[in-house]
Specification:
The chain is of the alpha/beta class and about 280 residues long. The chain is built from 14 helices and five strands. A five-stranded parallel sheet has the order 2-1-3-4-5, sandwiched between helices. Strand 3, helix 11 and strand 4 form a beta-alpha-beta unit.
């Protein structure tokens, strides 16, 4: 286990204010719990204000609470953390299932707190009447891109996916004004995605990014949906981050449908009727 950061917290504790020292003491005693906690939970456990927790982060030379969690994850890194950051090898199947579910619920609760500040109106205006939509993503985000394309095309908007590096770069290179490219990435660090979005923007396309607001991908975007749940995807398979991405895109699809109005509703009805007529029964997937 790499405990360098926790050792640094222990060393600096004496130089912190009394309130910040309480934050340090709690984190040193509960590093694992701190990784999965929100700033509100940490503040409550330390009996301090939320700004005090942020000041503690600054005193430790960190940019903010998210970077604190990143350092804690590195400090607690073990091989078994490749499974899921909240699950330990000693957990029963039921306990593991509950922890995974709670992690997903927490991600959505955090997303709800941010949702009113996200640029839905601006994105809807860009999408409605667009020539085509391109959904780009790699790895797990590529699956999210595919899911979004499957939903948006039913509104009557031409849609394509770009879910491998060559396709992302080539699709970007043939973009035109009136196109909207939605790039999906938890970390926002895939160089092929970043370069592709730069190319698309240079050709007049509008770039919407669903990603970490501090990432290089965010810098390229015209419209940014800051979506970065606390999840180290270098250590374990994306779970809560993927759920947050899917939720943002579902909300955006509904918002676009409402803006388009009757024609969107007719397209959705027609798509469902066509699918239903080709099968003996069942629901549209």
């Amino acid at each position: 286990m790499n405990t360098a950061f926790l050792s640094e917290v222990d060393t600096r504790q004496a130089s912190l204010s009394r309130a910040e020292s309480r934050v340090a003491s709690w984190i040193l005693a509960n590093p694992g719990e701190a990784v999965g906690a929100s700033v509100q939970v940490v503040a409550a456990n330390c009996d301090v204000s939320e700004p005090t927790v942020i000041r503690f982060c600054r005193s430790m030379g960190l940019d903010g609470f998210r970077e604190l969690k990143t350092h804690l994850i590195a400090s607690l890194h073990k091989t078994e953390s490749y499974l899921h950051h909240d699950v330990s090898p000693d957990d029963s199947s039921s306990s593991a299932a509950v922890k995974v579910l709670e992690s997903s619920v927490n991600a959505l609760v955090e997303l709800r707190a941010q949702i009113f500040t996200m640029p839905f109106e601006q994105a809807v205006e860009a999408i409605v009447g667009s020539r085509q939509m391109v959904f780009a993503g790699l790895g797990a985000s590529g699956h999210v891109a595919g899911d979004a394309c499957h939903k948006f095309f039913r509104l009557g908007i031409p849609c394509v996916t770009a879910i491998d590096s060559p396709t992302i770069l080539q699709q970007a290179s043939v973009c035109q004004p009136g196109d909207v490219v939605i790039a999906i990435s938890h970390t926002g660090t895939w160089k092929e995605v970043i370069e592709g979005m730069r190319i698309a923007a240079s050709r007049g396309a509008r770039v919407i990014a669903i990603t970490d607001p501090e990432s290089s991908l965010a810098d390229v975007a015209d419209i940014l949906f800051p979506c970065h749940p606390d999840e180290d995807t270098n250590v374990y398979t994306p779970m809560s981050s993927r759920l947050a991405q899917l939720t943002v895109l579902d909300a955006l699809q509904v918002s676009v449908a409402l803006k388009i109005g009757r024609s969107a509703e007719e397209n959705l009805r027609s798509a469902k009727t066509a699918l239903s007529s080709g099968r003996s029964g069942g629901e549209v997937s």
